[in-house]
Amino acid sequence: MESLESYWSRPAAEISRALASGPEGLTQDEATRRLGQYGSNTLEVRRRGSGLGLFLGQFKSPIVLILIFASIMSAFLHDWTDSLIVLGIVLASATLSFYQEFNAGHAAERLRAQVQVKARLLRNGAAQTVPMADVVPGDVALLSAGSLVPGDGVILEAHDFFVNQAVLTGESMPVERTPGVVGASATLNDRSNVVFFGTNVRSGRRAY
Q1: What pLDDT score was predicted for residue 76?
Q2: How many other CB atoms are found less than 10 A from the CB of residue 33?
Q3: Mean pLDDT over residues 193-199, rounded?
Q4: Phi-psi region for residue 118, left (φ > 0), alpha (ψ -120 to 50) or beta?
Q5: 111, 112, 116, 121 alpha-carbon torsion, rounded to 10°
Q6: In b/e form, how buried is each residue of 69-83, taking b as 16+ CB within 10 angstroms?
Q7: Measured distance CA(10)–CA(13) in Å, rounded
Q8: Which residues pair with 144 in a beta bridge?
């Protein structure tokens, strides 16, 4: 496939040709081939550190470091009671924080394993629902209110189409997206003919 640098500044027909796609989307065989070529459509999840590393991380807080310093100074001045009390408070706080963070991390991993986000695409000219991880370059996605955008793409058709992209730009209000072409130097906010992975549709319907 051709390079698609500054794809928002190129006509949709040109992009379709570059991706060897069309209004009816890809065939299932071609989608399977591209999935093998490009890999899953997922963000890389940062690996969790070891339990020991997570526990030691609880002692990076400035307040905790100050308390540890105070405990050392008390021990240096032979005030063993205050030193042990402060040290006990630090260890108890670190242990509690470690326990809560460790459990929260495992709960998030279990939830991620159970929930599978899906996308509605055109494959073989017909609408199909597939896991978002199986979306490949050249797929035509069918989006409507409530849909999660499964990848960066240009708009082919749209009707009163508004997208919430606060996750990227911080904009509190949904922005309208329409077919067309914008300048190659357009900023993220000005690329009114594209949608971005991870944003969600607030209203309208379209395909891209």
Answers
A1: 86
A2: 13
A3: 90
A4: beta
A5: 140
A6: eebeebeeeeeeeeb
A7: 8
A8: 205
